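Response to reviewer comment R2.3. The reviewers asked that we include at least one raw input/output pair. We reproduce the pair for Histidine triad nucleotide-binding protein here without editing.
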Amino acid sequence: MPDLVEPSIFTRIVRREIPATILAETERVIAFVDVAPKAPVHILVVPKTEQYANVVELAAGDPGLLAEVVELANQLAAEHSDGDFRLVFNTGAGAGQTVFHVHAHVLSGNLQEGSLASF
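Raw output as returned:
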């Protein structure tokens, strides 16, 4: 019998098994408020597919989907802040990635250079 892998928390949000404050959704991407924000505006933009663990895999496997993530991040930054934002992808446990379902952090709100360095 093959090993059964539990769906990621993001997949469970996509399936509406876990509640989230969803801010935007397209056919292939969903965006919601981070439950443990690290900035005044902290939004997660997540492809609905579990196929890619990190941004490097996504860029290699589906650059169009990566472009959709960035486009939605930009739109949300314009809607929820002044349009200035950081877009952070953690890649690997050593870089702070804890959910291995590719996702972008949209961070905004009076951020200073050097802040969030341990993010």
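The chain has one domain: 9-108. The chain has three helices and five strands. Further pairs are available on request from the corresponding author.
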